[in-house]
Design brief:
Blueprint: E1 13-18, H1 23-32, H2 34-38, E2 41-44, H3 46-56, E3 60-62, H4 70-79, E4 85-89, H5 99-111, E5 116-117, H6 120-127, H7 144-147
Parallel strand pairs: 1-2, 1-4, 2-3, 4-5
Helix pairs in contact: 1-3, 4-5
Pfam families: MGS
Family: Belongs to the methylglyoxal synthase family.
Function: Catalyzes the formation of methylglyoxal from dihydroxyacetone phosphate.
């Protein structure tokens, strides 16, 4: 696993995740967008990261496999402000034993206002946005009230 590179103001930290039956779709999408992706810092879970790194010949910061904790690692990176975009090709037709992890990852991305693409069409729209190449000040929610609340005894 390589270390995360320092960022320029317009460089995004893009997380790439795909379930087994969607890895081929993500790889095809990533090949098509290879040059653009190379301008950013890529983070991926387990096998997806290995495949992308080998096929695209660009560095990918690899986490654990999703079911082995990679989804939680990615969620922690989102909560810490270390991910700017989540591209997650998940399979709505395949039952997954780690479904709660998947829901938690999508939930935390929404909580922290991270753009999410869940299929090729939404990834095309998101990645073709001029905001991908620009400095973008994402509105980060203020959860001070939530974190400082007291629990009645």
């Amino acid at each position: 696993m390589d270390t995360l590179r320092p960022l320029t103001p317009a460089t995004k930290r893009i997380a790439l995740v795909a379930h087994d039956h969607k890895k081929k779709d993500l790889l095809e999408w990533a090949r098509f967008n290879r040059d653009g992706l190379a301008e950013h810092q890529l983070v991926a879970t387990g096998t997806t990261g290995r495949i992308l790194e080998e096929e695209l010949d660009i560095p990918v910061h690899r986490l654990q496999s999703g079911p082995l904790g990679g989804d939680q690692q990615l969620g922690a990176m989102i909560a810490n402000g270390d991910i700017d975009v989540l591209i997650f090709f998940w399979d709505p037709l395949e039952p997954m034993p780690h479904d709660p992890d998947v829901k938690a990852l999508l939930r935390i991305a929404v909580v922290w206002n991270i753009p999410i693409a869940c299929n090729r069409a939404s990834a095309d729209y998101l990645f073709s946005s001029p905001l991908v190449e620009a400095t973008y000040d994402r509105r980060v929610p203020d959860f001070t009230e939530h974190s400082e609340r007291s629990v009645a005894a």
